[in-house]
Amino acid sequence: MQTFSQFLKIIENFVSEQRFWGKNTSLYEPIEYMFSLPAKRVRPALMLLGYQLFSKDYQKALPIAFAYEAFHNFTLIHDDIMDQAPLRRGFPTIHIKYNTNAGILSGDALLINVYEYIRKHTPSEKLDKVLECFNKMAIEVCEGQQMDMEFEKAQVVSLTDYLEMIQFKTAVLLGASLSTGAILADASDADTEFCYELGTNLGMAFQMQDDYLDVWGDQNQTGKQKAGDIINGKKSAPYILALQVLPEYEKQTLINIYNTDKPQQEEKIKIVLGLFEQAGAQQAIRDLKNVYHSKTVQLLEHISAPDENKKHLHDLIELLLDRNV
After folding, report:
1. Do residues 78 and 92 make contact, with C-beta atoms less than 8 angstroms apart?
2. Bridge-partner residues for 87, per DSSP?
3. Contacts for 1 with CB less than 8 Å, ≥ 6 apart
4. For 89, left (φ over 0), alpha (ψ -120 to 50), or beta?
5. pLDDT tens digit string along 71-88?
6. 301-305: long-range contacts at Cβ-Cβ below 8 A with a sequence spacing of 24 or more?
7. I need a surface site. Which of 111, 191, 195, 247 has the fewest CB within 10 A?
8. CB atoms inside a 10 Å sphere around CB 27
9. Residue 261: per-residue pLDDT
């Protein structure tokens, strides 16, 4: 049985062997650059761990695991353009290093390659199920991103709407990764569904930790712009949770400051952090993360695989939700 760390090495070796080159090098160079950046590789590792729950020959799932990682990178390339993000994993984003058009086109080319990997490497008898799972996830990711962009125009977003957005934008990709591994390993429909729900709840907790780290994490560890969500007025969990409990005057102060470019960045961050502290947002987001964490552990118990097969997936769940990057 392979551990998460062992799967990471296996995936990195596989990624390093893949090449995206054609006649026009300027189209493919940004893709190569994206794959050269430091990455967690959580989604392909989840797929291999999902496969390993039910079968040992994980090598058969490697190309599809890579396809999911490629799809994730495609979404990041386009998300960074829409968010005007300057950094990705501590390095310049593609639209900064190259240009916006290069980011759009290279992302499109990468997505097409994703479908080609799935077509070529999925056994014919499983292709319909794999594509059904992938396509459902992919359109929900787009829906989640659209919701996220619409939230930028709204001063207040409900917690219910926010949770739906991150479920689509982030969590379903983890759910689909784990359940696709199960599909490829001939798991039952019931176990495949449990894997999807487990991965989705893990994704929700994963995003809670991301929101936490954006505000209270160390930029040197996260590789992202410090307090980027505050600077850009993104309706993240700390902001929404703070609005739920602040008195009316402080609530309006947070709304007004959060949704403007004034005052200057450092002053804006200082005021917002003070209001977050007053509202207890730091603990509130930890508590919400723990709710989803508990659900993932409960769902893992329902999967009808040997306990020894579940161990490494359980270890990954704990690792992801206690991370600093």
Report:
1. no
2. 92
3. 52, 56, 308, 309, 311, 312
4. left
5. 999 999 999 999 888 888
6. 302/194, 303/53, 303/191, 303/194, 303/195, 303/198, 304/188, 304/190, 304/191, 305/53, 305/54, 305/191
7. 247
8. 16
9. 77
Q: Where exactly are the structural domains of the chain? A: 4-320
pTM surpassing 0.85?
yes
pLDDT higher than threshold 80 for residue 218: no
What is the rounded CA–CA span in Å between residue 48 and residue 45?
A: 5
C-alpha 8/C-alpha 12 separation (Å) is: 6
Phi, psi angle pair for 156, to nearest 5°: -130, 135
Q: Residue 148 is encoded by which pair of tokens?
A: 């996220």
Tell the residue number behind the tokens 């994206």, with chain if given. 34
> What integer is the mean pLDDT of 112-120?
96
Asked whether residue 112 carries a pLDDT value surpassing 80, the answer given is: yes
Alpha carbons 215 and 224: distance in angstroms, whole number: 11
Q: Which two tokens stand for residue 185?
A: 């390993």
Burial profile 88-100: b = 16 or more Cβ within 10 angstroms, e = fewer: beebebbbbebee
